[in-house]
Design goal:
- This protein has about 90 residues and is mainly α.
- The protein has two helices and no strands.
- Helix 1 runs antiparallel to helix 2.
- The longest helix is centred in the middle third of the chain and has 41 residues.
Length: about 90
């Protein structure tokens, strides 16, 4: 069902179907956001913990680069989910 349709033109069954789909999409998105937020917290913890570990300079640099890439990817995915409207 297209979200650009005027809701006043829909019959009660179509409105119910739209509401059910939007609720399901909202739950899915929130679950994904929660999962990614948790993953982001884990990555930040790993990065913080790495500063206290006894890595060589090169090992620490490579680890930080990898963690920074992962952090950026997860952050971008969360932002995309939050900013884009739900499509039915």
């Amino acid at each position: 069902m297209d979200l650009t349709v005027d809701i006043t033109e829909l019959n009660p069954d179509q409105i119910r179907e739209l509401a059910i789909r939007l609720q399901a999409e909202g739950r899915f998105r929130q679950t994904l956001i929660d999962k990614l937020t948790h993953e982001l917290a884990i990555l930040k913890r790993q990065k913080f913990a790495a500063t206290s570990e006894a890595y060589t300079g090169e090992q620490q640099r490579e680890l930080f680069e990898t963690l920074d890439v992962d952090l950026a990817a997860v952050t971008a995915e969360i932002e995309q989910l939050v900013q884009h409207p739900i499509s039915a």
